[in-house]
Write a structure and sequence with these properties.
- The protein has 199 residues and is mainly alpha-helical.
- Strands 1-2 form a two-stranded antiparallel sheet.
- Helix 6 crosses helix 8 and helix 7 crosses helix 8.
Amino acid sequence: MSAPVPVSSQERREKDDPYELPTPIPVGILLLVAVMVIFGMFYILTAAPDGRVELGDHRTVADLMAKPGGAEGGTVNGAAIFSARCAACHQATGQGVPGVFPPLAGSEWAQGRDSLVASIVLHGVQGPLTVKGVKYDGAMPAFKDQLDDASIAAVLTYVRGEWGNRAGAIAEETVAKARAQTASHGGPWKGEAELAAMK
C-alpha cells in the first residue's frame, strides 16, 4: 500500500471538488415516459392525418370565377373574393390598418369613378395616397393577372355597397374597358400624383 500523499498548506485552504452521487432515475418516472412514448406511437399510427375529407366547402379560386356560358347564372361571389384577396390588408370590416393600409369604408377612392376604381385594382398603387384625410404611403398589388373582369367587377361592387358605402355597382364591361385603355401602363399607379388626373 502506497503512502498517503502529503497535503500542502495551500491545499488545506481549498474546498474539496464537488462530486455527484449515483442517483438513478426513479422507476416511476421511467414507466411514465415509456407509457407516454407508447401512447404517442399508437396515436400517430391510428390517427387519420387528413381528418374527415367530406367536411368543408372545397371551393378553390376557380370556383369563384364566373362560369363560361353563364353556368350557375354566371355570377361571382364578390364577398368571397374580398375575403380571400383583400381582407388581409383592408380587414373584414373595411377599416384597414391605421397608418399602414387605408380603409375602404367611406373611402373617396373606392366610391370614385367606375373606371378609376377598376384601374386601381387592375394595376395596384404604390406611393402617397390620401384617404379620408389621412396620408398613406404603401403598396397595393395589381390584380390584372390574377382576377378576370367579372371577378374584379364583383369584388368592387361588393366594396362599393358595404360598410356604409353607397356607390353604384361596377359592370364587367367597365372593367374590360379599363383593362384595354390602361393595357400599356407599366407597373402600379404612382399614388395620387397619377390617380388625381383620373378622378
